[in-house]
Amino acid sequence: MANKASKKHPVLFHVDMNSFYASVELLYRPELRGKPVAIAGNPKERRGIVVTSSYEARAYGVKTTMPVWEARRKCPDLIIIPPNFDRYREMSQLMFAKLTEFTPLVEPVSIDEGYMDVTDEALTNDALNLANLVQQAVFGELGLPCSIGVAPNKFLAKMASDMEKPNGLTVLRKRDIQEKLWPLPLIEMHGVGAKTNERLNRAGLKTIGDLAEADALWLKAEFGIKGEKMYERAHGIDERQVDPEAAGDRKSVGRSTTLRENTNDDAELLRQLERLSELVAVRLKHHHLCSNNIQLMLRNRNHETMTRSQTSVNPKMEADDIFEAAKALFLKYYDGEDIRLVGVTALDVYSRDEAFHQLDLFRYAEEVAKAERKREE
Amino acid sequence: MKFTIDREEFVQGVQHVNRAISPRSTINVLTGIKIEADTDGLTLIGSDSDISIQSFIPVADEEKEYLQIEQPGSVVLQAKYFVDIVKKLPGDTIEIEVQEQFAATVRSGAVVFNLNGLDPEEYPRLPKLEEDQSFKIPQHLLKDMIRQTVFAVSSQETRPVLTGVNLEIEEGKMTFTATDSHRLAMRSAEVETDASLSLSNIVIPGKSLTELSRIMDDAEDLIEVVVTETQVLFKFDRLMFFSRLLDGKYPVTKNMVPTQTKTDVTLERNDLVQALERALLLSREAKNNVINVKTAGDALIEITSVSAEIGKVQENIEVASLNGEDLRISFNGKNILDALKVIDSDVISIQFTGAMSPFVVRPQDHDQMLHLFSPVRTY
Description:
The complex is a heterodimer. By secondary structure, chain A is of the alpha+beta class. Chain A is 42% helix and 23% strand.
């Protein structure tokens, strides 16, 4: 396949649904069309946050992750709709099914975006024209607007789809990057978060162009593999293939929750971790999976995220074992600041059929007895 | 301070004390080597506050003159640079001179290094130990005992006391025990001591012992070991190795060794080593290193290993003797292999007590060593 792709010029699309949740809601309530609408966590709760909003709402300054009270202050007429995730999942499936009518090489990235490899299809059809057909099909048959980026690889396609919203169609060729990509501030570069941006800024790098002209060795020393990748991407290089299986290849099972209000109450945070551990255990059981690597995630009120993980000799699958690991991590690393989101993830999961439990020399009798009890249940 | 010293002797001393130094130490002065010259000789000290090593180079011994001290004094020099510098110096001797502000000049042959030193007054004092609990052991024996047990200490910090080796002495017999709670290694030996000396729960960090054994060689000469509540000191001819002891109660391990067995196997150590090495080729990816063993006739055991993705391996080993019940058991083959590599006997015996309980591996030649393992259970 790599061989085949190298002979032709690869053509990839990045399809990005425009304010997806809000667009889906408008299908159910067309009378709201043209009005400022926001999807927000339970609007009765003061701390609910805006998950997404229509472009009309955005014009007032409403932003994703903004608390509802603040969004209301910016836009007093804002119509708040609680999220209805079943609807979004259903529409998402229809949308991806539509994309696969054009090519089987569709890789969903999240509920509302995905990549398409149309290298073969683009031979008989001009790429831009094909993108136009995809956009029309998604809008015409499902009523959902999207922006499409057309480029020779994933990174450029993703950057291109961001350049015009809504209903954008943007072509980004390698020869365009100097003109279109390099002037952009680094924070707009896919893969550069607030923290990385800050570190780069401190080193005097402000734009993607600055990054492209930075010392590759320095970037590698400073950011490791991520630094190498950033440097390559800034030069429009991205070797990743479109892999339709990627989403189905489950590597981790995680659950997280945004707290009703920010807190530094250990007992409350531990209660949440215990609950999330149970949810992870249920999920693992459902898929007959286990993990030797449990990760704790904490996000503070400045949206700074910390993850810490712990590996164990024996696989974890039961809620109490998962919670034990999450709790140990929490007690070791939590520094008492206000937390807005907590999460528990089982990393590198694998089938229970391949799992072994190394008995403990001090407690093997108890362990065997506990396993027997489980088996009888 | 100003002295001239034999390069070879100095390099060895510097390398020894450097073993204790952690370049990431948060205490700045501990990233350096303390060098102290007085009329008797030169003292070098390195420490990471868990381990401290002091090396002494006398002015001269029967064989040779090592050192000329023109002016006594002391300085602390950055180990990270100093160790590499002295190794690469060209001359047979090195001259070190320290002037104001701890500015050190290192001369050898036609080479001159000017190094910024640190204030030796800031360097912590080495612990002063009460020497009423001590015993003597030949260097090569201590080195063997460390090698034969330290691999079994826990690498996980969940039970800190298990990251150390437990030292016990009773009636002139010293025992080292290490366990990560999945395998246990025990080794004992007679030592020279006051018959009344009884020690227990002396838990020496595995890392300290590993560093100590790197400094030791296979010499017959005796090392004196001094033990206090919180520290252990190994006294060599010209070197002192201090280590902090681990806090906490080491678990009682004596009663863990099963006294009854269900299946007894005696076999060539090398046969089992090779079979396990082959079987582990397949489980390298899976990382669990699970090996299955089953009795297969009067004098045969069958070893298998299965990897869902790669394939499987089966091998039959002829054993010298096989007595007792039929058995099927699974265990971490890597753990067994680690132990087999330190057993100094061509023939070994294994006592199994059932598929879900621990088993013991011992050398046939002597009873001063045993290894205990727990099996694995499938889901």
